Amino acid sequence: MKLFWNILIISAYALMLSHCSSHLSMHGRVSAPAGVDSLVAVQADSITAFLFTDEKSKIKAAQWFTKAKLRLAEAESLFVNWQSISDSLLNQSDKDSPRNKLHQSMLKSIISAENAANRSIEYNPFDYNTRSLIAQAYFFHGQITGTDFYYKRSKEILKSIIQQEKGEHSLYFRLGESCYQLNDWNCAYENYKLAENVLLSTTFAEKYGNGNGHSSKNSVDHHAQFRYVSHQAIARARQYDNKNALILFKRAATMAVTATDSELVDNYIDWIQWDGGNIVTAEKKNHLMVLLKEKRYREARDGFEQLINELETQTAKDEINWRIALIEYEYLNQKEKACDRMHEIVRHISSVNMKNLPADSEYRQYASDAGAMFYKLGFDYKKLSQYKNAYRCFSTASDIEWYGKSKSLLELAKLSIHDATQTLDIVNEILKDDNDLNGQELLQVYTLKLNALKRFGRERLTEIQETYRQIKALQ
Question: Model-level pTM?
Answer without folding.
Answer: 0.75
